[in-house]
Design a protein that fits this description.
Largest sheet: 5 strands, parallel
Number of strands: 11
Shape: elongated
Radius of gyration: 18 Å
Helix content: 40-55%
Strand order of the largest sheet: 2-1-3-4-5
Strand content: 15-25%
Amino acid sequence: MATILLVDDDPLIVELVQFNLEKWGYQVLVARDGQEALKLARNEKPDLVILDLMLPVIDGLEVCRHLHDDPATRNIPIIMLTARGEETDKVLGLELGADDYMTKPFSPRELLARIKARLRRLSPAEEGKETGEKGISYGEGEIMLFPEKYQVEVRGRKQSLTPKECELLQLLMTHPGRVFSRDYLLEKIWGYDYAGDTRTVDVHIRHLRMKIEADPANPRYLETVRGAGYRMRELEQ
């Protein structure tokens, strides 16, 4: 039985979401402010966090940042909940380490679909353990990806990755030259239909470029193919 940490100070949202999650067979932990959320996440190690952005004591964005920065919790997937319309909040949450977001009001069934999509996927760390994979090389070893560690090494410089960054980079690195559309990446990496909302992909691509490119504004490795999507460039031998 998967354990989900629900973080929200709205009693109606908590009652609705908790009722449905328990009906669907999940164990639910509830935190009503950011400080309580961090304590529960560190102590209980839930399988997934549903995190509202507007929280007392410590806001959701700060909670997201703390969870991502803490080695004990950084690999816990986070679905943000927000009533805000500003795109900056959603993008900032994704950049701080959240895997997904939903805007209130939302359908409980849509929330279930997103939870299932995240939990049913085998994490890169687990894949690495099963296959014994030590590293994935790209460009004669210019880039080395270590999925079991959520880590990438570029010309000897190591960078930590979020789980989604790791999955995305692994897919691109293992298919150099192939162009992947944003919609395909959404379905493949996030596991469900975002109904054309491709900002999540763009944010993660931008984050990857900051970690693997010497000049993210003029990428050598991770190219944008105008009107088509993204690809890892085939480097000349």
